[in-house]
Design a protein that fits this description.
By secondary structure, the protein is an alpha+beta fold. It has one domain: Nuclear Transport Factor 2, Chain: A (Roll), CATH 3.10.450.50. The chain has five helices and six strands. It has a six-stranded mixed sheet with strand order 2-1-6-5-4-3, covered by helices on one side. A hairpin with a 6-residue loop joins strand 4 and strand 5. Helix 1 packs across helix 2.
């Protein structure tokens, strides 16, 4: 199922030709390389899983390791299981989860097996719309791109 979601997301992401890069002027257009397409597809799949209320599916793009790092709200959580548990505790029902929207994605390829992704997030909920920024570090481990570190901030 994971590969089916990623394949579907790849098709959607393949049509994207605009991305940010520290090596190009903001708003410049270029063709994404395959690694950027794969990373973007993981984010598309995560957003879709969240919006279905599927936290386990959302976590599929993350490194299944005790070394996974998630920092938010002045706290750092280490480990895939602990991070999943944190999400499930904080977003225990669909009304708390709302609808997730990622935007302003900038993918910077640092090497053939490392990338940094900057972006913005927003949750659209019935009573509020919290938002903020994130910085993700992706690594290619055993031939697969996975998010190994997530630092998320809140705008308010």
């Amino acid at each position: 199922m994971k590969h089916l979601l990623i394949s579907a997301a790849l098709l959607g992401a393949a049509g994207c030709v605009s991305a940010g890069s520290s090596y190009m002027p903001r708003g410049a257009t270029y063709t994404l390389n395959q690694d950027e397409v794969t990373i973007r597809s993981i984010l598309v799949a995560q957003e879709a899983a969240w919006n279905r209320g599927d936290i386990d599916g959302f976590m599929e793009g993350s490194w299944e390791s005790d070394e996974l790092r998630y920092a938010s709200g002045g706290e750092i959580t280490y480990g895939y299981d602990a991070t999943t548990a944190r999400y499930k505790e904080r977003y225990s029902d669909r009304s708390l989860m709302g609808e997730l929207d990622f935007s302003d994605l900038e993918i910077d390829m640092l090497s053939p097996d490392a990338a940094v992704v900057h972006g913005a997030w927003k949750l659209i909920r019935e009573t509020d719309e919290p938002s903020g920024l994130f910085t993700l570090i992706f690594r290619k481990i055993d031939g697969e791109w996975v998010m190994v570190s997530d630092t998320t901030t809140s705008a308010g």
